[in-house]
Amino acid sequence: MLALRNNLKVLLGFALLFFLLTHFSAFSQTSLDDVHVATRQASAILTGSSSTSLESSGIHVIHADSRLVLVPVSVTDPMQRFVTGLNRDNFEVYEGAKPQRIQNFSSEDVPVSLGIILDVSGSMNDKMSRVREAVTQFCEASNPQDEFFLVTFSDEPRVVVDFTSNPEDLKKELLFTQPKGRTSLLDAIYLGLRKMKNAKYGKRALLVISDGGDNHSRYGEKEIKGFAKESDVMIYSIGVFDRYVPTPEELRGPSLLTEVAEPTGGRAFTVDNPNLMPPIARHIGIELRTQYVLAYRPQEAPHKSTWRKIRVKLRLPRKFPFLQAHAKTGYYASADPEAVTSADREQTSRR
Fold this sequence. Notes:
14 strands; globular; alpha/beta; Rossmann fold
């Protein structure tokens, strides 16, 4: 219940967002001028030089250089509108307490490999129409070159649509989906992260849509949280929870999704009204297209597999203190790029 109260501001914000998305088609590409952060002349001074595309620099695949760390960053104003037009001089990256030199910078709308992880357990039956609409809104907000796959889960997860560049394949599959069974949420996230190993693009994200916590998975919370951190995949979630008749799994659901998503640079949205799912899904799709990507090479080479904390700060004139940067909180540095993940180690030990 505490998590639901904490999300009251999010609900109010998305009520406004829904209105804006309905009535203002230009919302999806908000610039500094559009949100009245700076005049056009001031914005030009702020952005200065043009950005360097990661595509053209030859490092658009995240794992092409095991030493290179790529950090997608979203910048928003207090109304959660995305701010574009910044350049590398407007960002600072710290690994631990040490500042890092940003070697490459991109603000391009690059293609993304996307996985949708969809709860089709029995409790989702009365929410499926809104779920279908949410998937449609998410796909419509995406880059035309994006690729998608779809995992549904109840008693167990299944890949029902393999990687495709045609969102209609996902929509057709959902037309015949009949919710039933229990909720293997953690197993589904694991399957989605494993599937991402076959992704075409270096920028990768999962969208998880569920109405409850886990009650039927083989994997545990600790394993999946560790695997999510190791996978370099942003995880976003939309959790729809009943505030009046919560089960123990539902009570745990909001915090579970937050703990899985936030360290990866994604976000966890918790609502109690299914009608908010479509505008939130569209908002996530827009975020993925308006992110900056910062690339740096750590000053210290890793000697063993360790979690490196990172922090991104904005360098802006004092009249812009209200803008916020959102990025992943760290990454796993490993001297062995083929190291087995924590989830795999745990699963192997059970056999």
